Task: inverse folding
């Protein structure tokens, strides 16, 4: 039975196939805040035994047993929400009215995984359970941490070509609609202390700003570094810090055969001078799209 809303968020508690859960009160777009975690933050060894399966890790050895409606968020191996750094529950993609809102109980970001020497945290068997999310990605039993990796780079729809006077460039093999993903690719981050040395090499022409405050640099895989600059681009480059990934997104309809361009300043509308018009070289900028 549907219960009364207890917050101003676009969600409510309802009965789901696996018990009580949080449901979307209206159709929501990606990035919508649907709830907030409120509760006491404690180290893992201070979580009450009765709440060991209801606690959410919000930072290294900082766990919360929420007292808000977020306490009823159920797990999915292919979730439609995540918990942001501000402890908001935020949609990962479009969610339809009446759809259950879910998060992943056992995910570790690839950034955190790599920062720990490519090792996963130890799993507490008291938190294990048989999963009934029913998604194609379901692992059956949640008894370990996993590192969700974004889908493979979507580069089949582009080709590399030659642009007179500019070297190489990227062209659309098929038509892309505004907002469509063109390519997704991983990056190799370069620490701010190491970038000055790398900047003395050919990498200086292919580096991007990286980090919450652009304090680091990064080299992108795939075709990312081949897209040419334009002050009137038809695509934009976005970074996902947690996933160590970048994406090329169409910001206009792009016809087959058309060159795909981005603004190296990061923001498509920026008209700021670039490094090839300045004496001092610096990495290209990137629009940020990350978990806040």
Result:
């Amino acid at each position: 039975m549907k219960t009364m809303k207890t917050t101003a968020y676009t969600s409510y508690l309802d009965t789901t196939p696996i018990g009580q859960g949080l449901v979307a009160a209206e159709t929501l777009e990606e990035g919508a805040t649907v709830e907030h975690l409120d509760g006491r933050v404690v180290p893992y060894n201070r979580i009450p035994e009765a709440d060991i399966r209801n606690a959410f890790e919000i930072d290294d050895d900082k766990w919360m047993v929420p007292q808000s409606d977020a306490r009823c968020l159920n797990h999915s191996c292919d979730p439609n929400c995540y918990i942001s750094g501000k402890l908001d529950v935020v949609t990962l993609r479009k969610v339809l009215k009446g759809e259950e809102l879910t998060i992943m109980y056992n995910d570790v970001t690839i950034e955190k995984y790599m920062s720990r020497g490519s090792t996963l945290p130890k799993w507490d068997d008291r938190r294990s359970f048989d999963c009934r999310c029913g998604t194609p990605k379901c692992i059956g039993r949640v008894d370990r941490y996993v590192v969700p990796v974004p889908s493979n780079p979507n580069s089949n729809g582009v080709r590399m070509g030659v642009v007179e006077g500019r070297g190489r460039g990227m062209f659309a093999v098929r038509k892309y609609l505004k907002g469509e993903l063109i390519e997704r690719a991983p990056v190799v981050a370069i620490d701010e202390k190491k970038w000055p040395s790398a900047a003395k090499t050919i990498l200086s022409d292919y580096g991007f700003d990286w980090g919450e405050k652009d304090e680091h640099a990064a080299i992108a895989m795939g075709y990312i570094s081949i897209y040419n600059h334009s002050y009137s681009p038809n695509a934009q480059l976005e970074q996902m810090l947690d996933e160590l990934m970048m994406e090329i997104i169409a910001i206009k309809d792009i016809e087959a055969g058309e060159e795909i361009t981005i603004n190296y300043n990061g923001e498509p509308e920026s008209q700021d001078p670039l490094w090839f018009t300045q004496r001092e070289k610096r990495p290209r900028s990137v629009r940020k799209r990350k978990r806040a």
Summary: The CA atoms of residues 159 and 171 lie 5 Å apart.
